Amino acid sequence: MTTQEFSVPDKKMGELKTQNGREVLFNASANSAATGNDGLTGQLFNAGLGLPSDFNAESKGKIALIKRGGDLTFQVKVENAVAAGVAGVIIYNHEDSPGPLSFNVSGDIKIPVGGITKSSGAALLTDVVAENKTVTLNVKELKNLTSSNIIATKAPEKGGSNEIMHVSAHYDSVPFSPGANDNGTGTAAALELARVFKDYKLDKELRFVFVGAEEIGLVGSKHYVDKLSADEVKRSIANYNMDMVATAWDKATVLYTNTVDGKPNLVTTTANEVAKLIKTPSTLFLFQRGSSDHVDFHRVGIPAANFIWREPVTNNLEPYYHTPDDVLKYVSSAKLKEVANIVGASVYSLIRKK
Ligand SMILES: [Zn+2]
Fold first, then answer.
1. How confident is the model at residue 353 (pLDDT cuts 50, 70, 90)?
2. 72, 95, 119, 141 - which has most CB atoms within 10 Å?
3. pLDDT digits 0-9 by tens, 190-228
4. Does residue 304 lie in a domain region?
5. CA of residue 190 to ligand 1 center, whole Å
6. How many structural domains comprise the chain?
7. Do both 49 and 134 map to the same domain?
């Protein structure tokens, strides 16, 4: 097993706490200013929708609490707040969502800026604004960050071929989401397959690639593929990628095999044959989609596909996707088993010792 470390871009991490010690989920905007180590402590000012007329002499030096929506963009709300001399901006959502509001502003923003949920906004109006209490806002800039790919390799039997099979799953998740389905499930399936495959005699090299930093733009898989030599690329026969393979959402009844060009390849045709052979209950559906770690394998010409459950016709993903609700309760062990069976049997059919 090897670990492959790589750099990832700087990022902002925000924390928001009320004077009473209540933690509020806060999503710092990418362009937010960082605060000092002690954070910014201040009173909140209810700045309505963030119109110029929503500010007055009292808003100066306070942290503006602004509602999303109305006619103004996030950018204009923040600019209006800055022009009014506030010390920070918190925008709360106007619709319910489990995770804090995420938005970006451009330009040289000199104050901390970020988003919270609708219910957090309502709570702050009641227990901080109405009682003239304070909040502490902490935004840190994290620099020199790294992530890692973890690669487990099983060599072929003596006299086997020099071809390589790549099975991948990313193990990172997005902020404020536990990542049970995205992608604890793909990681779990790959781990289980690695456990099972260790006792099988193989004719080709099998690599399990546990990928870091997928969620910030497929950074880990790009690094892995870029580090393959031209010879390794030539010897690579396929990439089976598993990302969100076990949602319990009842509408996601079809197992999508996503390829970058929407065309079938060795991965999808083998999976279809195997699914028929082992009589898995669900339908497989070929779909054109990138957005996961199969993209870079495809880029260098390796047949690659991602396995993911979606709602047929609409192609929707589960509603828990990238939210704090992506928890074990919404993971289906039956679906996990089905994908692991299809991917495992497909991989085995392509690399077994004959
Ligand atoms: Zn994912």
1. confident
2. 72
3. 999 999 999 999 999 999 999 999 999 999 999 999 999
4. yes
5. 14
6. 2
7. yes
Distance 95 CA to ligand 1 centre (A): 25
Query: Are β-strands 205-211 and 27-28 bridged in parallel, bridged antiparallel, or unpaired?
Result: unpaired
pLDDT value for 354? 79
The tens digit of pLDDT for each residue in 278-289 reads 999 999 999 999
How far, in Å, from the CA of 183 to the mean position of ligand 1? 5
CA 226 – ligand 1 centroid, Å: 20
Interatomic CA distance for residues 288 and 260, integer angstroms: 6
How far is the centre of ligand 1, averaged over its atoms, from the C-alpha of 215 (Å)?
7
State how far the alpha carbon of 328 is from the alpha carbons of 169, 184, 249, in Å: 18, 9, 12
Are 93 and 76 found together in one domain? yes
| Distance spanning both ends of the chain, measured CA to CA | 26
What is the distance in A from the centroid of ligand 1 to the CA of 165?
Answer: 21
Per residue in 151-181, pLDDT tens?
999 999 999 999 999 999 999 999 999 999 9
CA 186 to chain centre: 13
